[in-house]
Amino acid sequence: MSKVPKQKKQATLGISIIPVLAVVAALSVSIIKFGADPHIPILFGAAVASFIAVYSLGYSWEEIEKGIIDSIGSVMQAILILAIIGMLIGTWIGGGIVPTLIYYGLKILSPTFFLAASMILCSVVSLATGSSWTTAGTVGVALIGVGQGLGVSVPLAAGAIISGAYFGDKMSPLSDTTNLAPAMAGSTLFDHIKHMIYTTGLSYLIAFVIYFVLGLKYRGHDLNTGEIQGILDAIQSIYVINPLLLLVPVITIAAVALKVPAIPGLIMGVALGAICMIFQGGDLGAIIDAIQNGVAAESGHAMVDELLTNGGMQSMMWTISLIMCALTFGGILEVTGMMGCIAGNLLNKAKSTGSLVLVTVVSCLFVNILCADQYLAIALPGKMFKDEYKERGLAPRNLSRTLEDSGTVTGALVPWNTCGATMSGFLGVPTFAYLPYTFFNLLSPVVSVLYAYAGFSIMTIEEDPSSEQYVRPMKLKKSSRELEEYVADYRKSHSLSV
Q1: Residue 477: CB partners within 8 Å, gap ≥ 6?
Q2: How far, in Å, CA of 435 to CA of 416, rounded?
Q3: Of 195, 214, 196, which Cα lies nearest the Cα of 204?
Q4: Taking CA 357 as the corner, what is the angle to CA 356 and CA 358, rounded to the nearest 5 degrees?
Q5: What's the predicted TM-score (pTM) here?
Q6: How far apart are CA 93 and CA 86, in angstroms?
Q7: Tens digits of per-residue pLDDT, 34-78?
């Protein structure tokens, strides 16, 4: 394959869409008909894209391989974080931390207010840490257990947890995406956050009301106190429950909030969990096994055993392998220009401000689906549309807000995206199962588009007091591959968490 002449052709829309259709067809047949995992269908799409790139566009296999390696390498930090959070969940279960959170949660929370309370709690934690992944992998895991004990629908509970987690991921100045979006659009961090209040505030309020109303259906239902007591007794039969164990998540979350880099901060959480395992009667062998393979609870209570059999680095390998398959496909589309061709054709459809924002939203979703990475879903559309927003006299904060309203939140809705696979892995709920209940994530892009068509909170350059910030000292690279490298360097230099 490497002997093919290096005379390259520019990808056309007709050629670029073939790998996309191949993946859609393969996923449809494999998942719907056979109930298979999405890994092989995505790799099939990558093979189709490679074949087209070599025999139609003139790329060498070495160039394609480099695109794949660069694509996977750009999210290596996220992959490491995934593995570490798997270890953290293992030691936190084995150390009695997650069981303690579930134990007191069942005693304090009621089914009526569980969904709304879960959304608020996850919002607070995510605002403090700037990390949706840390939020879902810690308090989110415990809240899933509490919801099960209270008889709340697990996909619905997962939706409330993810909605709260992504609110903080969007609005926290500590969040990587909240810093990356204005950097790509040319606005300032706090101008960006203030401008998001309009769309994010309404989306959050509507989502909160929906969760509150849905929670009311549990009002008047007889709480199965016998079942709850059985869960509490089962937990106490295998773990020592002590409120001091709650200090571990507090310390870990505080460390991340104080900008301790994500990987060292989470490793500290693993170490604290290992210490707690010693107090639970575990030895060094049990600790190593929990870090590697997780914990298998044996209380005799089916629900408790299922809930507390989780964690370990190996529990994340399915998710990590899915991410690598998706990034293989995305890397090929990116390095060969096929993805840029499709996105560029979308821009030709944007005539009004409303349609420009709509195309931006669709492009972010498109990149999240094909490249499987929320950072690229912010960076690539940000690069493509920055000049267009400027030429139309729109302040850069409009673009940065739209990138977050779509690129940040929709990644959790795609099963093979780094975010969707991660949320599903942490919470134990398939992405398509929780998707209809992630009201905040679903509403954010819709509200953003509706505001644009209505002309509400759309700021022109003349109205923007920070308009001189439009051209920033940072010079963006011209090629998409160089931009991908910039994103990786940006995340590395800022010790970003996810």
Answers
A1: 483, 485, 486
A2: 13
A3: 196
A4: 90
A5: 0.75
A6: 11
A7: 878 888 888 999 999 999 999 999 999 999 999 999 888 877 877
